[in-house]
Design goal:
Layout: H1 9-27, H2 34-46, H3 50-79, H4 85-102, H5 109-132, H6 140-163, H7 169-174, H8 186-193, H9 200-205
Length: 206
């Protein structure tokens, strides 16, 4: 269940298509184009130039490529029957970083759809893992680490979804997530995930 929602290839393709569309607008600026008008408005509200936006888009592409490689590595581990908690944690935090830093590239209809699907998808995984955690006591440490990293990711997705109006406050409330405040930092979770075996002593020391 831990790997039941690894970002689908079609979602990555949608993100790439979104970026290609924006890149085309930036390279052939036409203020009459709806997508370009959104970009110009974004640049003005953020007080950055179109050149800076191009530079940020290049950085986003690099981070997305890094995430794709991590995801592919995780898929291979899963096919081999490995739990691969460390790769799962790295995937979660890499996606969180992309969402936190580059949410503003997804202000249009397609972008809102992507963020809504991502948020609801990871929330569903979170619910299922929480509900099944008691039945997988042999993997409780790994599940704990994964759930904590998932909390970080879901919080970022919710914040971004609210910013771009992919989800409303009412829709978020209806998810009934309860307390999803992470108890551990990214550094601690990466450390714990890197251990083949660890016990609660590590957690207490951290």
């Amino acid at each position: 269940m831990i790997h039941s929602f690894i970002l689908p290839q079609e979602t990555i393709a949608s993100i790439q298509a979104q970026l290609e569309k924006l890149e085309g607008c930036l390279n052939n600026a036409d203020s009459q184009d709806e997508a370009m008008a959104e970009i110009i408005e974004l640049a003005n509200s953020s007080q950055i130039s179109l050149t800076q936006l191009r530079e940020e888009m290049i950085k986003l592409q690099h981070k997305l490529n890094r995430f794709t490689k991590l995801r592919e590595g995780l898929n291979e581990k899963v096919k081999q029957g490995e739990l691969a908690v460390l790769l799962s944690v790295r995937c979660n935090f890499t996606l969180k970083e992309i969402v936190d830093e580059y949410w503003y590239f997804f202000l249009n209809k397609d972008g809102r759809k992507i963020f809504k699907e991502l948020t609801l998808g990871f929330v569903e995984v979170y619910r299922q893992i929480k509900s099944e955690a008691n039945f997988q006591s042999s993997q409780k440490d790994e599940i704990y680490v994964f759930i904590e990293s998932l909390k970080h990711q879901i919080q970022s997705l919710i914040r971004a979804s609210l910013r771009i109006n992919a989800l409303s406050e009412e829709e978020i409330d209806e998810l009934n997530l309860g307390d999803i405040i992470p108890q551990e930092s990214e550094t601690v979770l990466t450390f714990l995930a890197s251990k083949k075996k660890w016990d609660w002593v590590y957690k207490n020391l951290a």
